[in-house]
Amino acid sequence: MNVEPSVRVEDKLYYNRYLVDIGQPHVKVRAHTTPSAELLALLKVCPARCYELNDNEQVEVTVDGCIECGTCRVIAEPTGDIQWSHPRGGYGVLFKFG
């Protein structure tokens, strides 16, 4: 039996590249003073870890590195906590292996 060594998701994500569309992010977080439960969930469920709490305890998104999986769209777009759209042509994630 041939057993392949395990590889972490983070290591595989490292091979992807992201072409940033300066000034036109495809994900925006609605202005808020206290994050909703949906925004707080994004801190844990985003596979690329694009969501963080800033010094003011507000959720921010860093779109460079986003793999455009749609997890945040499913969780927080219906509540209006984020705005999500596809990146303009030629921008966004560039998958190395498929």
Structure description:
The chain is 21% helix and 18% strand. It has helices spanning 9-14, 37-45, 71-76; strands spanning 17-19, 27-29, 51-53, 59-61, 82-84, 92-94. The strands form three sheets. Strands 1-6 form a two-stranded antiparallel sheet. A hairpin with a 5-residue loop joins strand 3 and strand 4 (59-61). The two termini are 27 Å apart.
Provide the succession of SSEs: HEEHEEHEE
Report low-confidence residues grouped into runs of 5 or more.
none
Indicate the mean pLDDT.
89
Q: Strand share of the residues?
A: 15-25%
Give the overall shape, derived from the CA principal axes. globular
Strand pairing plus helix content: what structural class? alpha+beta
Query: Major sheet: order of its strands?
Result: 1-6
C-alpha-based Rg, rounded? 15 Å
Q: Mind summarizing the main beta sheet? A: 2 strands, antiparallel
State the end-to-end distance: 27 Å
Helix content estimate = 10-25%
Would you count the extended β strands for me? 6
Number of helices: 3
Short description:
By secondary structure, this protein is α+β, with helices and mostly antiparallel strands.
List key phrases describing it.
single chain; about 100 residues; alpha+beta; two-stranded antiparallel ribbon; 3 helices; about 20% helix; globular
Write the layout of secondary structure elements.
Blueprint: H1 9-14, E1 17-19, E2 27-29, H2 37-45, E3 51-53, E4 59-61, H3 71-76, E5 82-84, E6 92-94
